[in-house]
Protein backbone atom coordinates (compact mmCIF):
# COMPACT_ATOMS: atom_id res chain seq x y z
CA UNK A 1 0.00 0.00 0.00
CA UNK A 2 1.40 3.42 -0.88
CA UNK A 3 1.84 5.90 1.94
CA UNK A 4 -0.53 8.91 1.87
CA UNK A 5 2.44 11.24 1.45
CA UNK A 6 3.33 9.73 -1.93
CA UNK A 7 0.59 11.98 -3.33
CA UNK A 8 3.12 14.81 -3.50
CA UNK A 9 5.37 13.04 -6.01
CA UNK A 10 2.58 13.00 -8.60
CA UNK A 11 2.30 16.78 -8.27
CA UNK A 12 6.05 17.31 -8.75
CA UNK A 13 6.07 14.93 -11.72
CA UNK A 14 3.18 16.83 -13.36
CA UNK A 15 5.25 19.96 -12.84
CA UNK A 16 7.92 18.57 -15.18
CA UNK A 17 5.47 19.08 -18.05
CA UNK A 18 4.39 22.48 -16.76
CA UNK A 19 1.19 21.45 -14.97
CA UNK A 20 0.37 22.92 -11.59
CA UNK A 21 -2.39 21.66 -9.27
CA UNK A 22 -5.73 23.33 -9.95
CA UNK A 23 -6.79 23.19 -6.33
CA UNK A 24 -5.13 25.19 -3.54
CA UNK A 25 -2.30 23.66 -1.55
CA UNK A 26 -2.70 25.87 1.54
CA UNK A 27 -5.66 26.60 3.79
CA UNK A 28 -5.21 30.35 3.33
CA UNK A 29 -5.47 30.07 -0.45
CA UNK A 30 -8.41 27.65 -0.15
CA UNK A 31 -10.33 30.17 1.97
CA UNK A 32 -9.48 33.04 -0.44
CA UNK A 33 -10.78 31.07 -3.40
CA UNK A 34 -13.89 29.99 -1.47
CA UNK A 35 -14.73 33.59 -0.63
CA UNK A 36 -14.61 34.44 -4.33
CA UNK A 37 -17.08 31.73 -5.35
CA UNK A 38 -19.50 31.76 -2.41
CA UNK A 39 -22.39 34.17 -2.02
CA UNK A 40 -21.93 36.90 0.58
CA UNK A 41 -24.48 35.21 2.84
CA UNK A 42 -23.01 31.72 2.74
CA UNK A 43 -19.44 32.97 3.09
CA UNK A 44 -20.39 35.10 6.10
CA UNK A 45 -22.22 32.17 7.71
CA UNK A 46 -19.42 29.64 7.21
CA UNK A 47 -16.41 31.85 7.91
CA UNK A 48 -17.95 33.84 10.74
CA UNK A 49 -17.74 33.11 14.42
CA UNK A 50 -19.06 34.44 17.69
CA UNK A 51 -18.31 37.99 18.83
CA UNK A 52 -14.81 39.24 18.06
CA UNK A 53 -13.97 35.76 16.72
CA UNK A 54 -11.28 35.52 19.37
CA UNK A 55 -12.20 31.95 20.30
CA UNK A 56 -12.10 31.03 16.64
CA UNK A 57 -8.62 32.50 16.11
CA UNK A 58 -7.46 31.03 19.43
CA UNK A 59 -8.53 27.56 18.31
CA UNK A 60 -6.09 27.70 15.42
CA UNK A 61 -3.31 29.53 17.28
CA UNK A 62 -3.36 26.96 20.11
CA UNK A 63 -1.71 24.38 17.86
CA UNK A 64 1.41 26.54 17.57
CA UNK A 65 1.97 26.36 21.31
CA UNK A 66 2.90 22.68 20.97
CA UNK A 67 5.86 21.25 19.09
CA UNK A 68 6.39 17.69 17.92
CA UNK A 69 9.64 16.11 19.03
CA UNK A 70 11.34 14.27 16.16
CA UNK A 71 12.75 10.77 16.72
CA UNK A 72 15.37 9.33 14.37
CA UNK A 73 15.76 5.84 12.91
CA UNK A 74 12.37 4.90 14.32
CA UNK A 75 11.31 2.44 11.60
CA UNK A 76 8.69 4.71 10.03
CA UNK A 77 9.18 3.73 6.37
CA UNK A 78 5.56 2.57 6.32
CA UNK A 79 2.94 4.40 8.28
CA UNK A 80 -0.38 3.16 9.54
CA UNK A 81 -2.90 5.97 10.02
CA UNK A 82 -5.81 3.69 10.87
CA UNK A 83 -7.74 3.97 14.12
CA UNK A 84 -10.41 1.86 15.78
CA UNK A 85 -13.70 3.46 16.79
CA UNK A 86 -16.68 1.62 18.23
CA UNK A 87 -15.43 -1.70 16.94
CA UNK A 88 -14.80 -0.48 13.38
CA UNK A 89 -11.33 -0.02 11.92
CA UNK A 90 -11.19 3.28 10.03
CA UNK A 91 -8.49 3.83 7.40
CA UNK A 92 -7.58 7.29 8.75
CA UNK A 93 -8.06 9.29 11.96
CA UNK A 94 -10.20 11.88 10.13
CA UNK A 95 -13.91 12.56 10.24
CA UNK A 96 -16.04 15.08 8.37
CA UNK A 97 -17.59 17.30 11.05
CA UNK A 98 -21.30 18.10 10.81
CA UNK A 99 -21.71 21.34 8.86
CA UNK A 100 -25.33 22.40 8.74
CA UNK A 101 -25.11 24.45 5.56
CA UNK A 102 -22.82 22.13 3.63
CA UNK A 103 -25.69 21.59 1.18
CA UNK A 104 -25.57 25.22 0.01
CA UNK A 105 -21.76 25.34 -0.09
CA UNK A 106 -22.07 23.38 -3.35
CA UNK A 107 -22.97 25.13 -6.56
CA UNK A 108 -25.92 22.82 -7.19
CA UNK A 109 -27.26 22.95 -3.62
CA UNK A 110 -26.57 19.25 -3.04
CA UNK A 111 -23.43 19.54 -0.95
CA UNK A 112 -24.65 16.99 1.56
CA UNK A 113 -24.74 14.37 -1.18
CA UNK A 114 -21.31 15.46 -2.50
CA UNK A 115 -19.90 15.15 1.03
CA UNK A 116 -21.37 11.66 1.41
CA UNK A 117 -19.83 10.68 -1.93
CA UNK A 118 -16.46 12.05 -0.84
CA UNK A 119 -16.81 9.98 2.34
CA UNK A 120 -17.61 6.92 0.21
CA UNK A 121 -14.57 7.56 -1.99
CA UNK A 122 -12.08 8.17 0.84
CA UNK A 123 -13.34 6.02 3.73
CA UNK A 124 -13.49 9.15 5.91
CA UNK A 125 -16.77 8.95 7.86
CA UNK A 126 -19.30 11.74 7.45
CA UNK A 127 -21.15 13.13 10.43
CA UNK A 128 -24.33 14.33 8.78
CA UNK A 129 -25.91 17.40 10.36
CA UNK A 130 -29.55 17.64 11.36
CA UNK A 131 -29.57 20.64 9.00
CA UNK A 132 -29.24 19.28 5.48
CA UNK A 133 -30.54 20.31 2.09
CA UNK A 134 -31.27 16.68 1.20
CA UNK A 135 -33.04 14.37 3.67
CA UNK A 136 -30.85 12.12 5.80
CA UNK A 137 -32.09 9.02 3.96
CA UNK A 138 -30.72 10.37 0.65
CA UNK A 139 -27.43 11.36 2.30
CA UNK A 140 -27.00 7.90 3.85
CA UNK A 141 -27.66 6.27 0.49
CA UNK A 142 -24.50 7.89 -0.95
CA UNK A 143 -22.13 6.67 1.77
CA UNK A 144 -21.31 3.28 0.24
CA UNK A 145 -19.27 1.19 2.66
CA UNK A 146 -18.08 4.20 4.68
CA UNK A 147 -19.75 4.72 8.05
CA UNK A 148 -21.98 7.73 8.58
CA UNK A 149 -22.96 9.20 11.91
CA UNK A 150 -26.04 11.33 12.46
CA UNK A 151 -25.63 14.61 14.34
CA UNK A 152 -28.75 15.42 16.29
CA UNK A 153 -29.94 18.83 17.36
CA UNK A 154 -32.66 17.65 19.72
CA UNK A 155 -35.69 19.86 19.05
CA UNK A 156 -37.72 20.99 22.04
CA UNK A 157 -40.28 18.37 21.04
CA UNK A 158 -39.59 14.85 22.22
CA UNK A 159 -41.73 13.19 19.59
CA UNK A 160 -39.82 14.93 16.80
CA UNK A 161 -36.49 14.06 18.42
CA UNK A 162 -37.55 10.43 18.59
CA UNK A 163 -38.61 10.49 14.96
CA UNK A 164 -35.19 11.84 13.89
CA UNK A 165 -33.37 9.11 15.80
CA UNK A 166 -35.63 6.39 14.40
CA UNK A 167 -35.08 7.67 10.87
CA UNK A 168 -31.31 7.89 11.36
CA UNK A 169 -31.18 4.28 12.57
CA UNK A 170 -33.34 3.09 9.70
CA UNK A 171 -31.24 5.01 7.16
CA UNK A 172 -28.15 3.12 8.34
CA UNK A 173 -26.23 5.71 10.35
CA UNK A 174 -24.01 3.92 12.86
CA UNK A 175 -23.75 6.47 15.70
CA UNK A 176 -25.72 9.41 17.06
CA UNK A 177 -23.90 12.63 17.99
CA UNK A 178 -25.95 14.99 20.16
CA UNK A 179 -24.68 18.58 19.95
CA UNK A 180 -25.04 20.46 23.24
CA UNK A 181 -23.29 23.77 22.53
CA UNK A 182 -25.96 25.11 20.21
CA UNK A 183 -29.13 24.93 22.25
CA UNK A 184 -29.51 28.54 21.17
CA UNK A 185 -27.79 30.53 18.43
CA UNK A 186 -24.63 32.46 19.39
CA UNK A 187 -23.93 36.19 18.81
CA UNK A 188 -22.59 36.39 15.28
CA UNK A 189 -21.85 39.97 14.22
CA UNK A 190 -21.02 39.12 10.60
CA UNK A 191 -24.39 37.52 9.97
CA UNK A 192 -26.14 40.21 12.01
CA UNK A 193 -24.54 42.96 9.90
CA UNK A 194 -26.06 41.51 6.74
CA UNK A 195 -29.22 40.31 8.53
CA UNK A 196 -28.79 36.82 7.16
CA UNK A 197 -29.61 33.45 8.67
CA UNK A 198 -30.00 30.77 5.98
CA UNK A 199 -32.36 28.46 7.85
CA UNK A 200 -34.93 31.22 8.28
CA UNK A 201 -35.13 31.34 4.51
CA UNK A 202 -36.11 27.67 4.59
CA UNK A 203 -32.65 26.43 3.62
CA UNK A 204 -31.19 23.19 4.99
CA UNK A 205 -34.40 22.12 6.69
CA UNK A 206 -35.05 18.97 4.62
CA UNK A 207 -35.01 16.65 7.63
CA UNK A 208 -37.76 18.69 9.25
CA UNK A 209 -39.84 19.26 6.13
CA UNK A 210 -39.87 15.53 5.31
CA UNK A 211 -40.60 14.41 8.85
CA UNK A 212 -44.09 13.08 9.56
CA UNK A 213 -44.07 14.44 13.13
CA UNK A 214 -42.95 17.90 11.99
CA UNK A 215 -45.47 17.95 9.17
CA UNK A 216 -48.27 17.01 11.54
CA UNK A 217 -47.54 20.22 13.49
CA UNK A 218 -48.22 22.41 10.43
CA UNK A 219 -51.52 23.76 9.11
CA UNK A 220 -50.21 23.57 5.53
CA UNK A 221 -47.38 21.39 4.19
CA UNK A 222 -43.96 23.07 3.75
CA UNK A 223 -44.31 22.88 -0.04
CA UNK A 224 -47.37 25.16 0.19
CA UNK A 225 -46.25 27.49 2.97
CA UNK A 226 -42.47 27.31 3.39
CA UNK A 227 -42.44 30.52 5.48
CA UNK A 228 -44.70 29.02 8.13
CA UNK A 229 -42.65 25.81 8.08
CA UNK A 230 -39.41 27.76 8.63
CA UNK A 231 -41.20 29.62 11.43
CA UNK A 232 -42.12 26.37 13.13
CA UNK A 233 -38.51 25.22 12.76
CA UNK A 234 -37.37 28.38 14.58
CA UNK A 235 -39.86 27.64 17.38
CA UNK A 236 -38.68 24.05 17.78
CA UNK A 237 -34.93 24.48 17.33
CA UNK A 238 -33.91 26.20 20.58
CA UNK A 239 -33.77 23.83 23.53
CA UNK A 240 -32.11 25.69 26.38
CA UNK A 241 -33.93 23.74 29.05
CA UNK A 242 -32.32 20.47 28.00
CA UNK A 243 -30.50 19.15 31.08
CA UNK A 244 -28.62 16.19 32.52
CA UNK A 245 -32.05 14.90 33.60
CA UNK A 246 -32.89 14.40 29.92
CA UNK A 247 -29.85 12.25 29.28
CA UNK A 248 -31.41 8.91 30.34
CA UNK A 249 -34.21 9.60 27.88
CA UNK A 250 -31.76 10.46 25.08
CA UNK A 251 -29.78 7.33 25.92
CA UNK A 252 -32.95 5.23 25.78
CA UNK A 253 -33.70 6.34 22.21
CA UNK A 254 -31.02 4.23 20.59
CA UNK A 255 -28.71 1.30 21.08
CA UNK A 256 -26.25 2.85 18.61
CA UNK A 257 -23.11 4.46 20.04
CA UNK A 258 -24.13 7.82 21.52
CA UNK A 259 -21.72 10.78 21.63
CA UNK A 260 -22.10 14.22 23.17
CA UNK A 261 -20.59 17.10 21.15
CA UNK A 262 -19.41 20.31 22.74
CA UNK A 263 -18.00 18.81 25.92
CA UNK A 264 -14.94 20.75 27.14
CA UNK A 265 -14.92 20.26 30.93
CA UNK A 266 -13.58 17.04 32.47
CA UNK A 267 -16.49 16.86 34.94
CA UNK A 268 -19.03 17.06 32.09
CA UNK A 269 -17.15 14.32 30.25
CA UNK A 270 -17.17 12.06 33.31
CA UNK A 271 -20.82 12.73 33.97
CA UNK A 272 -21.71 11.85 30.39
CA UNK A 273 -19.83 8.56 30.54
CA UNK A 274 -21.44 7.73 33.89
CA UNK A 275 -24.83 8.26 32.22
CA UNK A 276 -24.01 5.65 29.58
CA UNK A 277 -22.69 7.84 26.76
CA UNK A 278 -20.24 5.95 24.53
CA UNK A 279 -18.04 8.75 23.24
CA UNK A 280 -17.13 12.36 23.94
CA UNK A 281 -16.79 14.97 21.23
CA UNK A 282 -14.57 17.77 22.51
CA UNK A 283 -15.30 20.92 20.52
CA UNK A 284 -16.25 24.57 20.91
CA UNK A 285 -18.09 24.55 17.60
CA UNK A 286 -15.21 26.21 15.81
CA UNK A 287 -15.68 29.34 17.91
CA UNK A 288 -19.09 29.98 16.37
CA UNK A 289 -21.11 29.85 19.54
CA UNK A 290 -19.35 31.63 22.44
CA UNK A 291 -16.56 34.16 22.15
CA UNK A 292 -14.03 34.59 24.94
CA UNK A 293 -13.57 30.87 25.33
CA UNK A 294 -10.54 28.68 25.80
CA UNK A 295 -9.15 27.17 22.62
CA UNK A 296 -10.75 23.75 22.26
CA UNK A 297 -7.28 22.17 22.03
CA UNK A 298 -6.50 23.36 25.56
CA UNK A 299 -9.56 21.47 26.83
CA UNK A 300 -8.69 18.21 25.10
CA UNK A 301 -6.12 16.68 27.48
CA UNK A 302 -8.36 17.19 30.51
CA UNK A 303 -11.35 15.64 28.77
CA UNK A 304 -9.29 12.68 27.52
CA UNK A 305 -7.82 12.06 30.97
CA UNK A 306 -11.24 12.27 32.62
CA UNK A 307 -12.77 9.49 30.53
CA UNK A 308 -9.76 7.19 30.14
CA UNK A 309 -8.41 5.30 27.17
CA UNK A 310 -11.46 3.04 26.69
CA UNK A 311 -13.84 5.92 25.80
CA UNK A 312 -13.30 7.45 22.33
CA UNK A 313 -12.73 11.20 22.28
CA UNK A 314 -13.40 13.00 19.01
CA UNK A 315 -11.87 16.44 18.63
CA UNK A 316 -12.54 19.41 16.37
CA UNK A 317 -12.19 23.21 16.23
CA UNK A 318 -9.32 24.90 14.43
CA UNK A 319 -7.83 21.93 12.60
CA UNK A 320 -6.28 23.33 9.42
CA UNK A 321 -3.39 20.99 8.60
CA UNK A 322 -2.08 17.46 8.87
CA UNK A 323 0.23 18.57 11.66
CA UNK A 324 -2.78 19.89 13.60
CA UNK A 325 -4.35 16.44 13.27
CA UNK A 326 -1.24 14.81 14.76
CA UNK A 327 -1.08 17.26 17.66
CA UNK A 328 -4.72 16.65 18.56
CA UNK A 329 -4.14 12.90 18.47
CA UNK A 330 -1.08 13.29 20.71
CA UNK A 331 -3.12 15.34 23.18
CA UNK A 332 -5.68 12.57 23.59
CA UNK A 333 -8.05 12.55 20.61
CA UNK A 334 -9.04 9.15 19.19
CA UNK A 335 -10.00 10.80 15.89
CA UNK A 336 -10.10 14.35 14.57
CA UNK A 337 -12.86 16.10 12.64
CA UNK A 338 -12.53 18.94 10.16
CA UNK A 339 -15.16 21.59 9.53
CA UNK A 340 -14.51 24.72 7.48
CA UNK A 341 -11.65 23.24 5.41
CA UNK A 342 -13.87 20.73 3.65
CA UNK A 343 -16.72 23.23 3.28
CA UNK A 344 -14.29 25.44 1.33
CA UNK A 345 -12.97 22.44 -0.61
CA UNK A 346 -16.55 21.74 -1.68
CA UNK A 347 -17.21 25.35 -2.63
CA UNK A 348 -14.05 25.54 -4.72
CA UNK A 349 -13.99 22.09 -6.32
CA UNK A 350 -17.15 20.10 -5.55
CA UNK A 351 -16.73 16.50 -4.37
CA UNK A 352 -13.19 16.46 -5.81
CA UNK A 353 -12.44 19.57 -3.75
CA UNK A 354 -13.40 17.76 -0.52
CA UNK A 355 -11.28 14.78 -1.52
CA UNK A 356 -8.37 17.12 -2.27
CA UNK A 357 -8.60 18.73 1.17
CA UNK A 358 -8.63 15.31 2.86
CA UNK A 359 -5.76 14.07 0.69
CA UNK A 360 -3.63 17.10 1.62
CA UNK A 361 -4.33 16.71 5.35
CA UNK A 362 -3.45 13.01 5.21
CA UNK A 363 -0.33 13.54 3.10
CA UNK A 364 1.06 16.11 5.49
CA UNK A 365 0.18 14.00 8.54
CA UNK A 366 1.74 10.94 6.96
CA UNK A 367 4.97 12.67 5.90
CA UNK A 368 5.34 14.26 9.31
CA UNK A 369 4.97 10.83 10.93
CA UNK A 370 7.66 9.56 8.55
CA UNK A 371 10.08 12.38 9.19
CA UNK A 372 9.49 12.62 12.93
CA UNK A 373 9.58 8.85 13.45
CA UNK A 374 6.04 7.98 14.59
CA UNK A 375 4.89 5.10 12.36
CA UNK A 376 1.50 4.48 14.00
CA UNK A 377 -1.16 6.73 15.50
CA UNK A 378 -0.72 4.89 18.79
CA UNK A 379 2.92 6.08 18.86
CA UNK A 380 1.73 9.68 19.12
CA UNK A 381 1.40 10.05 22.88
CA UNK A 382 1.79 13.14 25.05
CA UNK A 383 5.55 12.66 25.12
CA UNK A 384 5.63 13.31 21.37
CA UNK A 385 4.86 16.95 22.20
CA UNK A 386 6.53 19.71 24.19
CA UNK A 387 5.17 23.18 24.91
CA UNK A 388 6.93 25.73 22.71
CA UNK A 389 9.01 28.10 24.85
CA UNK A 390 7.92 31.75 24.53
C1 LIG B 1 -21.01 26.59 8.60
C2 LIG B 1 -20.95 25.65 9.77
C3 LIG B 1 -22.09 24.96 10.14
C4 LIG B 1 -22.05 24.08 11.22
N1 LIG B 1 -23.16 23.35 11.52
C5 LIG B 1 -23.09 22.44 12.51
C6 LIG B 1 -24.18 21.58 12.75
O1 LIG B 1 -25.18 21.61 12.06
N2 LIG B 1 -24.09 20.72 13.79
C7 LIG B 1 -22.97 20.66 14.60
O2 LIG B 1 -22.94 19.88 15.55
N3 LIG B 1 -21.91 21.44 14.35
C8 LIG B 1 -21.95 22.31 13.32
N4 LIG B 1 -20.85 23.07 13.05
C9 LIG B 1 -19.63 22.93 13.86
C10 LIG B 1 -18.70 21.86 13.27
O3 LIG B 1 -19.23 20.58 13.44
C11 LIG B 1 -17.33 21.88 13.94
O4 LIG B 1 -17.50 21.79 15.34
C12 LIG B 1 -16.54 23.14 13.60
O5 LIG B 1 -16.70 23.49 12.25
C13 LIG B 1 -15.06 22.91 13.90
O6 LIG B 1 -14.34 24.08 13.74
P1 LIG B 1 -13.52 24.45 12.40
O7 LIG B 1 -14.52 24.71 11.35
O8 LIG B 1 -12.79 25.67 12.80
O9 LIG B 1 -12.65 23.28 12.07
C14 LIG B 1 -20.86 23.94 11.95
C15 LIG B 1 -19.71 24.62 11.56
C16 LIG B 1 -19.73 25.46 10.47
C17 LIG B 1 -18.47 26.16 10.05
O1 LIG C 1 -24.25 27.57 12.46
C1 LIG C 1 -23.96 26.62 13.17
O2 LIG C 1 -22.79 26.40 13.53
C2 LIG C 1 -24.98 25.71 13.63
O3 LIG C 1 -24.65 24.60 13.89
C3 LIG C 1 -26.37 26.15 13.80
C4 LIG C 1 -27.38 25.46 13.19
C5 LIG C 1 -28.70 25.89 13.35
C6 LIG C 1 -29.00 26.96 14.16
C7 LIG C 1 -27.99 27.61 14.79
C8 LIG C 1 -26.67 27.22 14.62
From TrEMBL:
Pfam families, per the entry: FMN_dh
Record key words, sorted: Oxidoreductase
Residue ranges of domain FMN hydroxy acid dehydrogenase in the record: 19-390
Matching PROSITE patterns: FMN_HYDROXY_ACID_DH_1 (PS00557), FMN_HYDROXY_ACID_DH_2 (PS51349)
Listed name of the protein: Alpha-hydroxy-acid oxidizing protein
Requisite cofactors: FMN
Family to which this protein belongs: Belongs to the FMN-dependent alpha-hydroxy acid dehydrogenase family.
Protein species of origin: Actinomadura luzonensis
Transmembrane segments: none
Superkingdom of the source species: Bacteria
Amino acid sequence: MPNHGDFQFGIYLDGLSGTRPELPMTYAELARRAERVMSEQVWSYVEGGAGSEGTQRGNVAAFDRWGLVPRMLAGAAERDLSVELFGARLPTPLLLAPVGVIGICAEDGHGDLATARAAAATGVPMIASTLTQDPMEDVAAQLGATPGWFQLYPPNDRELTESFVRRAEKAGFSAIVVTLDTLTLGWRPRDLAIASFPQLRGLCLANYFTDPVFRARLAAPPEEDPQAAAGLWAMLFGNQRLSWDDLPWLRSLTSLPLLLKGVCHPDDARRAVDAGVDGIYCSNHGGRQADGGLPALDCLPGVADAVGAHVPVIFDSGVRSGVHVLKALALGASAVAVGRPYAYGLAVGGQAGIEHVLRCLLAEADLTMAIDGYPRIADLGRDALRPVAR
